[in-house]
Specification:
TIM Barrel, 8-stranded parallel β-barrel, 18 helices, 4 domains, about 25% helix, alpha/beta, single chain, 9-stranded mixed beta sheet
């Protein structure tokens, strides 16, 4: 029997060796097939796209293992059946402590171990942001061969920096990004040789993992400023590619559509394979508007997070694109502030009886993305000691124990699933030390050394499911992990340090919290600087003190800072400290406040108070307990041992690896530091009335310094969030049933405004050229709206020599911003004036190429008459009312008021048309004397209120022309096979001036082709409907491409 088993064992070994040899031979064959084709001639295309007809044929024969359809992804199973899947997984960053993310220091074995742990967490997907080394992809293939029934799929990112000048259409930038797209597609098919380049992964990529790649994610969190600049420079709204169409979009959306189309075409044409593609989006560019979000002051140094949108509903796949696209968002429950401050998110109650702003925001986002798979490609909470943003419901950016991180992350994951999102990809797998956070990054200097130490005050470094820590000591006051411990019956004080903390262990035999208070004073650098007066000392202290820790009892302990050395900054209140220690003896120590939430004001004037974070408040507990993982100190009364730790930044250490402490020179632009020799430390025991009982040491100070380092030691540990996500991921097995009802019949609805608007505002300005150039035109471009401008007599004009407030340059500027012109008639019209006005109208027509057809009449003008001196007048209005010749129920005059909540209510309650006439823009609110005068700030608030309430903001002429068409047109349709012919029929006596009319088409059809409209191309009926724009009197053809 033994011989039998021996033979079986030998055969198994031989079989394993044979399989391994075959795999090596296969790899060598693949390696020989890899061809590096590098197009060095920048004038030549990166590849030669096939003609549309040919690519259509290839597309229909392409293979694909994943598809994005309706609300979820589907995966092709081994039995050739499609199965819906809810993606659950984690984002992977590879920057281990001491390394930049571009150093790619992990081995094949490390990746393989990570994948094993992630798989055991019941995850089914991972996401990476950029190209990683070949070892990563080889490890993924090996893992999926070993764990066939629990494979890990991949969302592969295509990273890019921002274009230098902020225009995404820059030719060089586009080419570089497309080169990166090609590289990504080649390597996932195992056919890439990537040359070495600083900051980029390189090597021979011969492992084909394409069967595991669920999707490609283009780009990054796009900065709103760059999106706005691109939209200003490039006036594009439509794109019709072979695979992706964009309709009624903006220039950035068109650019993204072009890049998506490029990626799909390259993979389809080169590998006859497709997969879902998307781009990265985040809340500052979401498609909804939020009145609680507003930049109300120039000093605020942050993006306008409610200015521009990237809307996935503007994207449509063609029938060539079998795999389909999806929506991808990074969503966190604390940023931007609107996710907390909007009442519709923070006030309602969930089905489980709890408030949850994250849940209700996701409901809103999913409602907007209905019919498109919505992947939450980043979400999570950090287990940092520091907190950089507070929320009303406790989903803060930091300040969570590891247990809180675990419990709250479970809630967020369940929210994503319950709101019918397509997947939840947690941020992130490991703690990454190189990352910066807005609240504390100015005090991490030199910045390039951030990766060498672990800042627990920095939330961005502590999102990981896996802790990457260098912590030497557990705060528990037992001293077992103090190899350098001094012991004895008398007072003993010990110090230690690591890349995360500075530690103290003190044995204080006679100390009793019932009788005593304890103070620990720190001179962190330069004994002459700092506070020399302590309230419990009669004489000045020799060493200037930067920090003073006070312990009154286990529930009241705090590390205070000398008032001159605080880093509390509030630019709104013009509070900017010197950021360096100062020789003083005023005896003042203050709490270590940081401004986590600046005070805000909504568009309607609602106030949101500032929230300060006190990083000096010390938490009592045992740090090995997940519920008190951020504990700062512990006192064992039986042993009379105190153990405590301070994060380095609590002591204004800007880089402990080189002993750098904050010591700014206000004359330089950078935040400066000095190198300290070490800390001088003193203990003071007082009675409860702060009368000195004992000074430790009795004379002088303790001095402690620590070793510098360039390669920090660390170890990895699974945090409790690993196990909470493991449990939650196991529960999320089946995709929820779709309870949404689809359209039961086909219908067309003519809309009163050109889109999903509930009303309209026409803007009219009669202001100075300075106001037009400096305020009005930038506002029109910023908000992508239109307005009319009054052309009238200048003050120096007279009857013999009429002068007007328009010139060629100004007319061109107004025209390029989308504005038009209204000529104002004075009450007394001389023949000379009328002739001069006619001449000026003709000149403006020539300058802009547009016919001026609007006049502003004096209030005493007989409105039932038409101004016969002028031909082709479409609109005639007064400053106090509005009129046009074919409709008696036109505008209501919008009356300006500073009660923005009242305006908000009015716009919702009394939907319709309003004319807003502005004849002066002033700087000081006290100068607003009537309803036609506004400040620049008021103008911005009003525009945002109009926009946020879904009002079309346009010119009087365009509004009235549109309304005239809308009221006179009727829709008639006829069907023939898979074709529908749509006509907006106009009466014979209708005016000859038209604008395209918005028509909402509802149907069960999934994909249609539209021709003869103002926006032709392929449309997807994402939620059972599509918005078409039809010219009155012109037939539109709809072809049902996919029923």
């Amino acid at each position: 029997m033994k011989a039998k088993y021996l033979i079986i064992a030998i055969l198994i070994v031989l079989l394993a060796l044979t399989v391994r040899s075959m795999m090596k031979i296969e790899e060598n064959i693949r390696s020989e097939k890899i061809k590096l084709v590098e197009v060095t001639d920048k004038s030549k295309p990166l590849f030669n796209p096939l003609p549309a007809e040919e690519i259509a044929g290839i597309s229909q024969k392409s293979t694909y293992s994943f598809k994005a359809d309706r609300d979820y992804f589907e995966v092709l199973k081994s039995d050739n059946q499609w199965e819906k899947i809810f993606f659950k997984g984690v984002n992977i960053g590879t920057a281990v402590p001491g390394k930049f993310p571009t150093e790619f220091s992990l081995s094949f074995e490390q990746y393989l171990e990570w994948f094993r742990l992630i798989g055991e967490m019941n995850a089914n997907v991972i996401r990476v942001y950029t190209v990683l080394p070949p070892e990563f992809y080889r490890a993924l293939a090996v893992h999926n061969q070993r764990y066939f029934s629990k494979k890990l799929y991949l969302f592969q990112g295509v990273w890019t920096e921002l274009p230098a000048e902020g225009n995404f259409y820059n030719v060089e930038f586009v080419r570089n990004f497309q080169e990166e797209i090609i590289k990504v597609i080649n390597l996932i098919h195992g056919k890439a040789v990537v040359a070495e380049k600083p900051g980029h992964a390189s090597g021979v990529y011969q492992t084909d993992i394409s069967q595991y790649v669920a999707g490609i994610l283009l780009g990054r969190e796009w900065e709103p400023d760059a999106v706005e600049k691109t939209n200003r420079l490039m006036k594009k709204t439509e794109f019709r590619g072979n695979f992706i169409n964009v309709h009624q979009g903006n220039a950035m959306e068109v650019w993204l559509g072009e890049m998506m189309d490029f990626a799909i075409q390259y993979e389809t044409q080169t590998f006859q394979t497709q997969r879902p593609v998307s781009f990265v989006n985040w809340l500052p560019l979401d498609p909804m508007f939020h009145s609680s979000e507003y930049i109300e002051a120039e000093y605020v140094r942050e993006y306008d997070n409610d200015l521009k949108s990237l809307d996935f509903t503007h994207f449509h796949k063609t029938t060539n694109y079998l795999a389909g696209f999806f929506a991808s968002y990074h969503v966190y429950p604390y940023y931007p502030d609107f996710i907390c401050n909007e009442a519709k998110y923070s006030h309602p109650i969930k089905p489980d009886g709890k408030k949850d702003n994250f849940y209700f925001y996701l409901l809103d986002l999913k409602e907007h993305c209905k019919g498109i798979p919505l992947l939450i490609s980043e979400y999570g909470l950090p287990s940092s000691r520091g907190n950089s943003h507070y929320t009303p419901l406790g989903f803060d950016q930091g300040g969570h124990s590891e247990m809180e991180q675990a419990v709250l992350s479970e809630v967020l994951t369940r929210d994503i699933y319950n709101t019918r999102c397509a997947g939840a990809v947690y941020f992130e797998w490991i703690d990454e030390w190189f990352k910066r956070n807005w609240l504390v990054m100015d005090f991490e200097e030199p910045a390039e050394n951030r990766r060498l130490w672990h800042n627990l005050e920095n939330p961005e470094q502590n999102y990981g499911i896996v802790a990457c820590e260098s912590i030497k000591k557990t705060i528990d006051a037992n001293g077992k992990d103090w190899t350098e411990l001094k012991t004895g019956k008398d007072i003993q004080v010990n110090f230690s340090a690591d890349p995360a903390y500075f530690y103290i262990l003190a044995q204080l035999p006679d100390f009793d919290f019932k009788k005593h208070n304890l103070y620990i004073a720190f001179d962190t650098y330069d004994k002459l600087k700092g506070e020399h007066k302590l309230r419990f000392l009669e004489d000045e202290n020799e060493h200037g003190i930067e920090f003073l820790a006070e312990f009154q009892n286990t529930g009241n302990a705090e590390l205070f800072v000398d008032d001159y050395y605080t880093v509390f900054t509030d630019r709104g209140e013009q509070i900017v400290p010197p950021y360096h220690s100062v020789n003083n003896n005023n005896g003042k120590f203050v709490s270590q406040w940081l401004l986590a939430n600046r005070k805000r004001e909504s568009v309607t004037g609602e106030k949101f108070p500032e929230i300060k974070h006190n990083r000096g408040k010390l938490t009592y507990g045992i740090s090995s307990s997940p519920a008190s993982s951020n504990a700062d100190w512990y006192w064992d009364n039986s042993k009379k041992i105190l153990e405590l730790r301070f994060t380095w930044q609590m002591l204004n250490v800007t880089d402990p690896s080189i002993h750098a402490v904050l010591d700014n020179n206000p004359k330089t632009r950078e935040m400066d530091y000095s190198i300290t020799d070490g800390f001088h430390i003193q203990f003071f025991i007082t009675d409860k009335n702060d009368q000195l009982v004992k000074k430790i040491p009795e004379s002088g100070t303790y001095f402690y310094t620590w070793d510098s380092w360039i390669d920090p030691p660390y170890k990895m540990r699974l945090k409790p969030v690993y196990y909470s996500l493991k449990k939650e991921f196991a529960r999320l097995k089946k995709v929820p049933q779709n309870t949404d009802s689809e359209p039961t019949d086909e219908n067309f609805t003519l809309l009163p405004y050109p889109g999903d608007y509930q009303g309209a505002i026409s803007l009219v300005f009669n202001v100075t050229e300075k106001s037009i150039r400096e305020i009005v035109l930038p506002s029109l471009l910023t908000y992508d709206i239109q307005a009319s401008f009054i052309i009238s007599e200048l003050p120096q004009s007279n009857e013999k020599n009429p002068l007007f407030n328009i010139n060629r340059a100004l007319a061109a500027s107004i025209d390029s911003a989308g504005g038009d012109f209204i000529f104002k008639l004075p009450e007394n019209q001389s023949e000379n004036f009328v002739q001069a006005l006619k001449t000026k109208m003709i000149a403006v027509d020539e300058w802009t190429g547009k016919k001026c057809t609007s006049v502003l009449l004096p209030d005493n003008f007989p409105f039932k008459s038409k101004p016969t001196d002028f031909q082709d007048i479409q609109i005639a209005m007064s400053q106090t009312d509005a009129y046009y010749r074919s409709h008696q129920n036109g505008f209501r005059l919008f009356k300006q008021t500073s009660d923005y909540q009242l305006i908000d209510s009015l716009l919702n309650a009394e939907k319709g048309w309003y004319n807003f006439y502005i004849d002066k823009i002033v700087k000081n609110p006290e100068m607003v004397r009537n309803q036609r005068t506004v400040t620049e700030e008021q103008l911005h608030r009003l525009i945002r209120l109009f926009r946020n309430n879904k009002y079309w903001i346009t010119t009087p002429e365009k509004l009235l022309v549109y309304q005239n068409c809308y009221r006179q047109c009727t829709i008639k349709t006829k069907n023939f096979n898979n074709l529908i012919f749509v006509n907006c029929v106009v009466p014979d006596n209708a005016p000859d001036k038209y604008l395209p009319l918005a028509v909402k088409y509802r149907s069960k059809a999934k994909i249609i082709k539209v021709s003869g409209s103002a926006s032709d191309g392929i449309y997807n009926l994402h939620s059972g409907e599509a918005m078409l724009f039809c010219f009155p009197g012109k037939e539109v053809t709809i072809e049902i491409m996919e029923p």
